[in-house]
Design goal:
The protein is of the alpha/beta class and 216 residues long. It has a single domain, classed as Dihydrofolate Reductase, subunit A. It is globular and about 45 Å long. It binds NADP nicotinamide-adenine-dinucleotide phosphate.
């Protein structure tokens, strides 16, 4: 069994979600408020370690009224236990689980263990299927996946994403090294992931598209 996974992101008209090494605000305030309402509905919120290092996000609900108990459990995919000890995700506003691999340096793991829960999965990179199973057993039945590009690809590859919502901000970023919505190694032309369009909504200057995912 696995938690239900919604991948949510904001991208520019040319499909970028960030520059090569810094984050940027892509969608407008009302889209961000929508995302915080989403966070309230999900048991967990998941990101890759590079997103933690580049953005240092809190991953809590802070744009709408909420209680501390409304915050989803923060889940970080971090095979080498690189999460900085002063990261905002390690504050006491919500639970945090860091998923590390068997190769993570033990001294780093011990230091992080003082601040959050550690789960081990995978030999060198994280075994995402096993991770989902372990999270489900911890009663995490729904996960909001918030990037970045590399984790998004792996999650599609492992067929773990059920639904996609992508907000297109009225911006062009360009740059062959800018991060796109889904990077990784990519699929070959016969094996791309098919989506079913469910809705299309204008939010101020942004467009919100919602899809379900159709695996072969
Ligand atoms: N616009 C948006 O909606 C949005 C949302 C989120 C993020 N972003 C942007 O995305 C950028 C970061 O994206 P990113 O692609 O560089 O990194 P990422 O997806 O945040 O993190 C990827 C890292 O996760 C670790 N990992 C471990 N096991 C993995 C597995 N099985 N599959 C995939 N990753 C695994 C790897 O690092 P280790 O080997 O060290 O474990 C990998 O390099 C940032 O610039 C951020 O601003 C934008």
């Amino acid at each position: 069994m696995k938690p239900y996974v919604l991948l949510n992101a904001a991208m520019t008209v040319d499909g970028k979600i960030a520059t090569e090494n810094s984050s940027m605000k892509i969608s407008g305030e009302n889209d961000l408020i929508r995302v915080h309402h989403l966070r309230k509905k999900y048991d967990g919120i998941m990101v890759g370690i590079n997103t933690i290092i580049v953005d240092n996000p809190k991953l809590t609900i802070h744009k709408i009224p909420s209680e501390k108990t409304d915050n989803p459990t923060r889940i970080i995919i971090d095979s080498k236990a690189r999460t900085p000890l002063d990261s905002k995700v390690l504050n006491n506003q919500a639970e945090t689980i860091i998923i590390v691999s068997k190769k993570a340096p033990i001294d780093r793991v011990k230091k992080l263990e003082e601040k959050c829960t550690i789960i081990t999965s995978g030999e060198t990179s994280i075994d995402l299927k096993e991770t989902m199973d372990k999270l489900y057993k911890l009663n995490i039945r729904s996960i909001l996946l918030e990037g970045g590009s590399t984790l998004n690809f792996s999650m599609f590859k492992e067929e773990l994403i059920d639904e996609v919502s992508i907000c297109i901000g009225s911006k062009i970023l360009g740059g062959s090294k800018s991060k796109t919505f889904v990077d990784g190694n990519g699929f070959d032309k016969d094996n791309c992931v098919n989506l079913n369009l469910k809705s299309c909504e204008k939010i101020d200057d942004d467009i919100l598209l919602k899809y379900t995912v159709q695996y072969k």
